[in-house]
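pasting for the record
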Amino acid sequence: MTDRVVVVGAGHAAGQFVARLRAEKYEGEIVVFGEEPVVPYQRPPLSKAYLAGEVDLDRVLLRKEDFYTEQNVDIRTNTKVTSIDTAAATVTAQGQTLEYSHLVLATGAQVRKISLPGA
């Protein structure tokens, strides 16, 4: 099997993680799957300054797209992982199954309302 890190999620944590891997001289393959159409970006500034038209998209990206190309990181935007098989060490996205030697789940979180009185 190839020495490959697969990252599911392309948010802030994923962006920082892959940059750190390369900074620590990890030479294996890195593949990042993200459902959004852009590379990892900073969420709070996006929701404020970018949406208000005060800054452009380049200002909220963690790193420019060129960084990922230069660091040999395969960022697959607009791509949803549909299954993970930990026994086989594979992920499936868009009908393609990919083996991994290491898997990182960096999918973030969503607010969930509790159905309790007063919540």
